[in-house]
Amino acid sequence: MYNLVLLAARPPEWTHEQFITWWRGDHAKLTCRLPGLRSWRHTEIDAALEPRSEGWDGVSVLGFDSPEDLKKALASPEWADAVAQVGDMKGRRIAVMGTEAELFAA
């Protein structure tokens, strides 16, 4: 699996609850349409382990079969729609991509 991982913080004028509702609702409706999307996991962050990790609201992991499939998704009209919906929100994000390795499964 090749993943796009997004760590995001809400715009300053939004509550945590508003941001999660939007992310899992209206934004998810657009994101789920991405071509080649095989899986999507979302974690609502409710606590930080340490002070330097504070200030984030959620993590999304979008899974694709290959880097090429992710590139196609990022070049798609569906991605453009999702980006347009985000618009000029003043939230923060970190976006990284890479190959997944399962290290443990119970």
UniProtKB/TrEMBL annotation:
Protein name per the record: EthD family reductase
Entry coiled-coil feature ranges: none
Gene3D superfamilies: 3.30.70.100
InterPro entries in the cross-refs: Dimeric_a/b-barrel, EthD_dom
Organism of origin: Streptomyces botrytidirepellens
Pfam family membership, one: EthD
Organism lineage: Bacteria, Bacillati, Actinomycetota, Actinomycetes, Kitasatosporales
Gene Ontology molecular function terms on file: oxidoreductase activity
EthD domain boundaries: 12-83
